[in-house]
Amino acid sequence: MDADDLVSDDAEETGFRQWVLKLRLLTTLDPKLDSAQLATRVKWASKARWAYSEQLETSFGTEDEELPAWLQHIYKLGRYYAATKAMLKLASKQPDVFTAIHVKPVDAPEQVRFTLGNQQDPLLLVLRKITAADPIDLKEKLGQIWFVDDPEKKLRDACRMTLTVHAEMQLLSFYDHHPDLTPRLLFMGTSKKACYLCHEFMSRHPLTIGVSASHQKLYPTWLPAPCSSVVRKKHKALLWEFSRHLEETTARDLETRLGIWRPASKDSTAGPSLTTSWTDSAGSWTQELSLRGLP
Length: 295
Fold this sequence. Notes:
Blueprint (H helix, E strand, L loop, with lengths): L10 H11 L13 H16 L2 H8 L8 H25 L18 E3 L7 H9 L4 H12 L4 H8 L2 E3 L3 H11 L9 E2 L7 H9 L5 E2 L17 H6 L1 H21 L39
Parallel strand pairs: 3-4
Antiparallel strand pairs: 1-2
Helix pairs in contact: 2-4, 5-6
Pfam family, one: OTT_1508_deam
């Protein structure tokens, strides 16, 4: 598409074509974008959901209304803009709630590379450790489900990954290291639902911070937040219980649910609704978010 293709008597159509021109930029994004550049990309992505969803879903959706992964990722990115805008609107309507809150960007923990190294039979080793069933039989069944002759190689290849600390874990870690800043309202606002591991960890954490919902997806690249030796010692029992629960759940499902598939759940359906986020700066909300009664 070139400049001549942008000419149209329809302003909306012209806007959509201009938006599509920037689509290629998404595939070349630098992971180390500064805040200003990232904000521009997030605002651009928000238009996919709230301005051009009809055109995009008509062009790229399937008969069963399933959207391609790349479009779902753009929708997800756009929700960060909606969440930020909703928070700013709430601050303008309920300033008392925000008088003691300082908002500033923080650097996320570094991602961590992970592999299984040179272990010859890591899958068999894990199956022997966590299950009471025949590990050889389970290994063969896993190979059948994965449609591979060598499930060990499948696992080794799958475990070459980059681990990431999710935002929920970063926030918990912050309060672990700054207990004097723990808020009175122990509820975490998110632009999307919490994943399975974040939800399980948070439900066991002493602060018991609530989240709006969990989509129960399991991300193999999940990583706990880095912490000091003092915090690690304080949460020794928590970490042990968390690991024990995951091993028991894995063992139970290996023995009773192996081969059962379920539809992938959406992970971006939480967050502010369209009616409370997509209005102009002077517009009023259709839903009043009154927090005057908070202690």
